[in-house]
Amino acid sequence: MQPEIFVDILQEAMFMVILLVCLVIVPSMIVGLIVAIFQAATSINEQTLSFLPRLIVTLAAIVYGGHWGINHLMEYTIGMFMRVQQVVG
């Protein structure tokens, strides 16, 4: 068991987490920024105006990007099971 194996596994795990979180968070942040600019330009201070578009975009990102994210997660999990011999033995 070399430490390099564990560093590689941790690096791949962190990259997978960042990838899957960005799938949902980035579209929501972009819509939130656009709505915030619109609210600042028009002086509308309504809380629900920023919440509803972000919710809809987040749900759409999960619906349309979920299949891609689950495929990547399955590939990562299968790769981890294939590396068990490398880690244990």
TrEMBL record:
It is a multi-pass membrane protein. Role in flagellar biosynthesis. It holds the Pfam family Bac_export_3. It is found in: Cell membrane; Bacterial flagellum basal body. Belongs to the FliQ/MopD/SpaQ family. Coiled coil: none annotated. Keywords: Bacterial flagellum, Cell membrane, Cell projection, Cilium, Flagellum, Membrane, Transmembrane, Transmembrane helix. InterPro entries: Bac_export_3 (IPR002191), FliQ (IPR006305). The keyword Transmembrane helix applies. The keyword Cell membrane applies. Its main location: membrane. This is Flagellar biosynthetic protein FliQ. The chain crosses the membrane at residues 13-39, 51-70. It comes from Catenovulum adriaticum.
